[in-house]
Amino acid sequence: MSRTVQSFLLSEMKSMVGVKVYYNTFQVSKHNEVASYSWETLMANIGGNLGFFMGLTLVTFLEITEFIWDIFNIACGRVTPDNKVRKLQNKKSQDINHLFSTKFENSGKRRRLSL
C-alpha cells in the first residue's frame, strides 16, 4: 500500500470508537401481540353504538317536531291554558242552564213590569 493510504487508514482508526457489549444472561424473550377484539366483537360494538345514536337522533327529531307543533298552535291561538277548566256539555247541564236562564229572564221581566 502506498504511504498516503496507510496514513489515511491510521487517521480513520484513531477517530473510531469501539463498543463492547456484555450480556448478563443469554435468555431470550419472545413477545406475541394478540388482538383484544375479535372481528365479531368489533362489529357488535359498532352496531350497538350506531343503534344508540340512531335512537338519540329519532328522539331529537320527535322533540323538535313537537316543539314546532306547539309553536304553530300558539301562533294560531288554539292552545288553552292548562289551569282552565273545560266546560262539558251534556243533556243534564243544558237542562239546568236552561232553567236558570228562564228564571233570570222572567225575574228581569217582572222588574220591568213593576217599574
From TrEMBL:
<dbReference type="Pfam" id="PF00858">
    <property type="entry name" value="ASC"/>
</dbReference>
<dbReference type="GO" id="GO:0005886">
    <property type="term" value="C:plasma membrane"/>
</dbReference>
<keyword id="KW-0407">Ion channel</keyword>
<keyword id="KW-1133">Transmembrane helix</keyword>
<keyword id="KW-0739">Sodium transport</keyword>
<keyword id="KW-0406">Ion transport</keyword>
<dbReference type="InterPro" id="IPR001873">
    <property type="entry name" value="ENaC"/>
</dbReference>
<protein>
    <submittedName>
        <fullName>Degenerin-like protein unc-105</fullName>
    </submittedName>
</protein>
<keyword id="KW-0894">Sodium channel</keyword>
<keyword id="KW-0813">Transport</keyword>
<keyword id="KW-0472">Membrane</keyword>
<comment type="similarity">
    <text>Belongs to the amiloride-sensitive sodium channel (TC 1.A.6) family.</text>
</comment>
<keyword id="KW-0915">Sodium</keyword>
<keyword id="KW-0812">Transmembrane</keyword>
<dbReference type="GO" id="GO:0015280">
    <property type="term" value="F:ligand-gated sodium channel activity"/>
</dbReference>
